[in-house]
Design goal:
Elements (H helix, E strand, L loop, with lengths): L13 E2 L5 E3 L7 E8 L5 E3 L13 E7 L1 E10 L12 E7 L5 E6 L12 E9 L8 E8 L1
Parallel strand pairs: 1-10
Antiparallel strand pairs: 2-3, 3-4, 3-5, 6-7, 6-9, 7-8, 9-10
The chain binds zinc ion.
């Protein structure tokens, strides 16, 4: 008897965007947001950067931005972008990280009435099926912390 076919193996999700989300566990259940910090002026950005947006220095270092932030603003989205895999309507939150950059993502596990500017939130990961097949994508979301 041959071994189990590939399709029966549990498939571990991969990061939706490896330049913004680094998975930190083998089963893709935890991760950290990542970005770059300017060593000259201390400005931090979320995601990739070639030069500093503030002082144009190229003296950048990769940093982990963690999973915590504060809800800066939010929108209730009733008409989602094409291919949106989640529920509608949903809450799109703009979250400010302690290092300064802001990160847009869906806010989950929160009633609309409980949304409050300035509330503490934390990043959580959800596995979403890939549109083109292949492993699921681990997508970052915000939830009240
Ligand atoms: Zn700078």
């Amino acid at each position: 008897m041959p071994g189990m076919p590939d399709s029966k193996r549990p498939v571990i999700p991969i990061s939706i965007d490896p330049t913004r989300l680094k998975l930190t566990s083998d089963d893709a259940s935890t991760g950290t947001l990542i970005g770059f910090r300017c060593k000259d002026c201390d400005t931090t950005v979320f995601g990739t950067a070639v030069f500093c947006q503030s002082c144009t220095s190229r003296n950048l270092e990769a940093v982990e931005l963690g999973v915590k932030g504060i809800l800066f603003s939010y929108t209730i989205v009733r008409i989602p972008p094409a291919g949106w895999p989640g529920d509608v309507p949903y809450v799109l939150g703009q979250v400010e990280l302690p290092q300064g950059p802001q990160v847009l993502a869906e806010v989950i596990d929160c009633e609309y009435d409980d949304l409050e500017i300035g509330m503490d939130v934390e990043m959580t990961l959800q596995a979403v099926p890939a549109e083109s097949g292949g492993p699921d994508k681990a997508v970052y979301k915000w939830r009240p912390s």
